[in-house]
Amino acid sequence: MSARRRSVAALAILTLAGGAAVYGTYLLAVQPREGEPSGRCTASLDEASASLSAEQAGNAALIAASSSRLGLPARGATIGIATAMQESSLINIDYGDRDSIGLFQQRPSQGWGSIEQIMDPYYSADTFYTALAKVSGWQDMAVTVAAQTVQRSAFPDAYAKHEGMARLWASALRGHSGSLAVDCDVSAGPGTTAAAFVDRIDHDLGAGAYEVRALASTEDGLWLDVVPAGAERWRRDAFAAWAVAVAATESVEAVVDGTTGWERATGLGAVDAPGAPLGVAVRLLPVEP
Fold first, then answer.
1. Pairing, β 280-284 against β 252-257
2. Do residues 287 and 229 lie in contact, with contact meaning Cβ atoms separated by under 8 Å?
3. Residue (of 141, 175, 170) closest to 133 by Cα position
4. Residue 267: partners with Cβ closer than 8 Å, 6 or more residues away
5. Whole-angstrom Cα distance, residue 111 to residue 93?
6. What is the dihedral of CA 189, 193, 199, 201, to 10 degrees?
7. What do you get for the CA distance between the two ends of the chain, in Å?
8. Phi-psi category of 280—alpha, beta or left, where left has phi over 0 and alpha has psi -120 to 50?
9. Sign of CA dihedral 186, 190, 191, 196
10. Coil, helix or strand for 222?
11. pLDDT 10s digit of each residue in the chain, 289 long?
12. pTM to 2 decimals?
């Protein structure tokens, strides 16, 4: 049995704590040792919050970024994330019902692409959104109806139960929940370079969507200034949320969005960026020489 086929018991819960909605999806087979980072990420808006594993959060970030890069409104991100929550628990699995695979459980036999293509999460997300965009009036459909129109699932109403959680993550990742609406408690990444991080930005969010310039190289890491192409505030907030969500894989150590900061070891709080960033400041863990 592959690592992807590990005994993943995904549990989605909704509780009410002091009147606040708290959503959580947990990989029960993966429990951190005492003193280790939890490996969880949380999106918040007002009194509501929704938690995912770092792997799930990274895939949610990719899906939301795909919707933005393809020019879809934030509702598209909600539909895409809710669909992947139902189909694969936001894990890029290489198995499923019959020949279904990937984040969206697309089937090669049904014309969605080759196995290699579908297992590429970028291809999978873009293909889902291409199909969604062809659905007349999808923006006005209920989330579960829009998802079902694309997926043609045997369980057409199953997507509805993920709508609240998907909406919180989509709002954060599309920049509509304010500054740094995502918080992750993760271990340090493997180390990266500025070029590799810029490539990831362009791949996810689109070439030209953000301009990246060097801020400083300090003993703590490499600081970059990521400036959106447009002046709208949501562009900054969307990038900041995305950067935190992919911190574990992309070796992001700190993010500063205006007066709000996030640091991998401490979470949300005050973080000082060097120089005078024009956009969102990001500190990367460099590759060890």
1. antiparallel
2. no
3. 141
4. 183, 185
5. 19
6. 60
7. 36
8. beta
9. negative
10. strand
11. 333 333 333 333 333 333 345 445 434 345 667 779 999 999 999 999 999 999 999 999 999 999 999 999 999 999 999 999 999 999 999 999 999 999 999 999 999 999 999 999 999 999 999 999 999 999 999 999 999 999 998 888 999 999 999 999 999 999 999 999 999 999 999 999 999 999 999 999 999 999 999 999 999 999 999 999 999 999 999 999 999 999 999 999 999 999 999 999 999 999 999 999 999 999 999 998 7
12. 0.90
In 3D space, the residue among 273, 287, 286, 193 whose CA is nearest the CA of residue 240 turns out to be 273
In the structure encoding, which two tokens stand for residue 39, read together?
């490996």
Structure tokens at 178: 């304010």
Q: Are 95 and 89 in contact (CB under 8 A)?
A: no
Q: Compute φ and ψ for 119, nearest 5 degrees.
A: -75, -10
For residue 166, CA distances in Å to 50, 83, 179 come to 8, 9, 18
- Residue given tokens 């933005």 in the structure block: 68
Q: What are phi and psi of 59, to 5 degrees?
A: -70, -35
**CA diameter of the chain:** 55
Instruction: Determine whether 52 is exposed, middle or buried from the number of CB atoms within 10 Å of its CB (0-12, 13-18, 19+).
Output: buried
Contacts of 177 (CB under 8 A, 6+ apart): 43, 44, 45, 168, 171, 237, 241
